Amino acid sequence: MRRPIIIWWSGSRRSWNRPGPRRGPRARAPHPPAVGRPPAAARAWRWPWGALTVYGLTLAASLWVLAGGPRRLFPPLQPVTAPLGGRTAGPSSWAGRTLAALGVEEATARAWVEAALPAMLPPAPAPRSWRSWLGAALADLSGSRIHDLRQLVALALPVMEAAAARPLPAAAPLPPGLPGPEAVAPALPGDHGRVWAQLGSGPLIGIYHTFTRQTFGGGGSGYSTDWPRTVVQVGWWLAQDLHRLGVPVVQARVDNMRQGLLDAYHLSYRTARQILTWYPGVRVLLDVARGDNPDPAATTVELAGVRVARIAIVVGTNRLLPDPYWHQDLRFALRLAGRLEADAPGILEGKDGVSTVPYRYNQELLPADLLIRIGGPGNTLAQERYAASYLAEALAQLAHTGALTRGGG
Predict the structure, then answer these.
(1) How many structural domains comprise the chain?
(2) In a domain, 323, yes or no
(3) Is residue 269 part of a domain?
(4) Secondary structure (H, E, C), the chain
(5) Is residue 328 part of a domain?
(6) Which domain holds residue 344?
(7) What tens-digit pLDDT sequence spans the chain (409 residues)?
């Protein structure tokens, strides 16, 4: 049976309702398979080893951090403002352990690097906690460290300041190469050539020289082992004047330059430590040296018609290495500079005669530990002699007022 055909007229356009096949997208030719590559259905599934490796390493590192691995592998650094109270049992970093194995002190290694590549040692701030900031602020305001019970008690009870603080104990026995207490070198000036020249019982001031071979008068290399022409002679004059003024003193005439300039501070550190070991009553350490300015006009002043070598006081800080006493060193330096300027106006170099440097210069041993530079290579020994006399007068006045027995404060 045939269906009727219905024709719809709409203007000039007609539509038919005759059923027919629907038009779909044109069939396309299949893509040819890639050469050497099997179809997707034929490829076997593989493990994503690269992603799994990265994920496993990340997970293992996270577990290691949570278990405290970095804390055990890299011990936390101690802020430079924190009081040390003494030397640690041993180096904790790989660099420290390497230097210890080679028998090289940290100060010597730093001097080597600084001499070869000065730009390699920029001041790097150490990490600080809120306790470190608080301790530094209290130390600046009160001059006392919050970890030092004796200083806190002395701050509350000023009468406690009359009790003298003991210096740091020695961390090691007499180092090899350091002369014994009875050692004698006939070429040394005074005291029958004794290396450890003690004047008076119970020395209060200890004098030593890092650069023992520095000479005066100009000419030559500026260094010599003819001790009466060196800074050792100036230190002996200073010791004699202090003893004459009633201040017991000891001068260590150990040649700390016997291994050269780079090792001088390493050897002088041992010398200073030995002074504190054999003479525990020492409250002031002075490293007496010569300045480097070759112009005599800048290092000389005329006082009472006499030309005198000028004096510079150098205070190390904790900018590069820890120094728990540098604030007290600075306070003592300012008191000494004030006394010198009052007795001999113009004898100090610079604005006030005191300069601070980022290096410690072995001044971390006592609260009154200073580097004293007298004159320069162009000054004469006579000018050095007058300067030593003025310095002794100022130190003796501080000693008689009790400033030295309070650790320089």
Answers:
(1) 1
(2) yes
(3) yes
(4) CCCCCCEEEECCEEEECCCCCCCCCCCCCCCCCCCCCCCCCCCCCCCCHHHHHHHHHHHHHHHHHHCCHHHHHCCCCCCCCCCCCCCCCCCCCHHHHHHHHHCCCHHHHHHHHHHHCHHHCCCCCCCCCHHHHHHHHHHHHHCCCCCCHHHHHHHHCHHHHHCCCCCCCCCCCCCCCCCCCCCECCCCCCHHHECEEEECCCCCEEEECCCCCEECCCCCCCECCCHHHEHHHHHHHHHHHHHHCCCCEEEECCCCCCCCCCCHHHHHHHHHHHHHHHCCCCCEEEEEECCCCCCCCCCEEEECCEEEECEEEEEECCCCCCCCCHHHHHHHHHHHHHHHHHHCCCCECCCCCEEEECCCCCCCCCCCEEEEEECCCCCCHHHHHHHHHHHHHHHHHHHHCCCHHHCCC
(5) yes
(6) 164-406
(7) 566 666 655 555 554 555 555 555 555 555 555 555 555 555 567 778 888 888 888 888 878 777 766 666 655 544 443 333 344 445 556 777 777 777 666 666 666 665 555 444 444 444 445 555 565 555 544 444 455 554 555 445 444 433 333 343 344 455 666 888 888 888 899 888 899 999 999 999 999 999 999 999 877 778 999 999 999 999 999 999 999 999 999 999 999 999 888 889 989 999 999 999 999 999 999 999 999 998 999 999 999 999 999 999 999 988 888 888 899 999 999 999 999 999 999 999 988 889 999 888 989 999 999 999 999 999 999 999 999 999 999 999 999 887 776 555 5
CATH at 303: 3.40.630.40
272 in a structural domain: yes
pTM, to two decimals: 0.58
